[in-house]
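We modelled the chain as a single entity of 159 amino acids. Its sequence is:
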Amino acid sequence: MSETADIRTELSRRLKGNVLLIGIGNTLRGDDGAGPALIERLEGRVKALLMDVGEVPESYLSRILDAQADTIAIIDAADFGAAPGDLAVLEAEDISGHSVSTHQMPLSLFFRFIKRYSRAEMFALGIQPSRIALGEPMSPEVAASVRALAELLRELLPK
């Protein structure tokens, strides 16, 4: 799903109740920093709990569960075979095949753990990376998607 209208429709349908947005990634690895970059852009601008968990989301499990969110959206760079910067809503069962694998814990295991101990509706919002090499800047395509997604989330989750 890469069309902005489709993403808007899907997110407006799914972002309900107490929302937790989790950015995963390493800002020193180019496009892998998309999740944390989005969280930074949203800080203080949306009605949602925001967490930048870097590359070690498992270190935040108790904080995530303590949030008692109704909806948990994980934002991460994910290789799903699309053009750089494209967005996709990914379900828990889709995650293992779409990770860029720069994280300590496989995202599929992270999902399973949270789903076991939380009643939250949970999904990932993947951003197709172009480059994830150490020391590379974020690609223009991914940076544009992060900006557009931040604007969309500001509209959908007004403060």
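As a brief sanity check on the tokenised model: The helical segments are 4-14, 34-42, 61-66, 107-117, 140-156. The CA atoms of residues 31 and 131 lie 6 Å apart.
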